[in-house]
Amino acid sequence: MSEFVDSRQYAPATQRNREPILEVLLKVLPPTGTVLEVSSGTGEHAVFFAPRLHPRKWIPSDPNPLALLSIAAWRSHFPADNLYPPIALDVCARIWAIERDELPKPLSNLDFKRDEIVAIVNINMIHIAPWSACLGLMAGARRILPPGGILYLYGPFKQSGVHTAASNAAFDESLRSQNPEWGVRDLDEVVAVAQSQNLSLLKTYTMPANNLSIGFQMRSTI
User: I need a surface site. Which of 23, 134, 135, 197 has the fewest CB within 10 A?
Assistant: First the structure.
């Protein structure tokens, strides 16, 4: 385990938001099946949620090699029998790694079946990424999720084009100063993209620190 310890990264927001997020996940996730977490970051959410969401299984993922090392390190430090090893996944790719005929090695060596994925969880990504990441997330959800499957988003959002708090407006300005393609997204625009990918808005939950939890459900194609 010592070989992973120095690879662990820490996100202070995780400690503040993990309990409120867990409360919502327990309400919106299907009772069984596998959850794919897109953009797992440090891995702190994965190791916290997985044992508390048993018997569901949890697959963490991220495109960043350093994040993958951190996730693996956290998983080694807090192992759970329902937490898969992390996989490299680029949300903007036309075909995600988990969709390919040849699965990523950590999964190909395990008893994993793609059709067991019933939910996708994405926390604090679409505002710290280009808009194409949101489009890719929605398109991937349509390809992967079964009818009734759940897509869960968490983060700050504008509503009807207006920031819900001065702190969110300042955060948005800070993000755009770092990268003009980043920024707090408008909920109406996100919902419109989701609907174009056959996802229905289930419910919006008000969260601490002016964030929202958004639950979408895949409609039947019949």
Answer: 23
Residue type, 61: S
Strands (E), the chain: 34-38, 57-62, 87-88, 117-123, 150-155, 157-158, 185-186, 199-207, 211-218
Would you write out the chain's pLDDT as a tens digit for each of its 222 residues?
A: 444 457 999 999 898 999 999 999 999 999 999 999 999 999 999 999 999 999 999 999 999 999 999 999 999 999 999 999 999 999 999 999 999 878 887 888 787 888 899 999 999 999 999 999 999 999 999 999 999 999 999 999 999 999 999 999 999 999 999 999 999 999 999 999 999 999 999 999 999 999 999 999 999 865
Whole-model pTM: value is: 0.95
Pick the closest to residue 92 from 126, 46, 58 (CA basis).
126
**CB neighbour list of residue 100: distance below 8 Å, 6 or more residues apart:** none
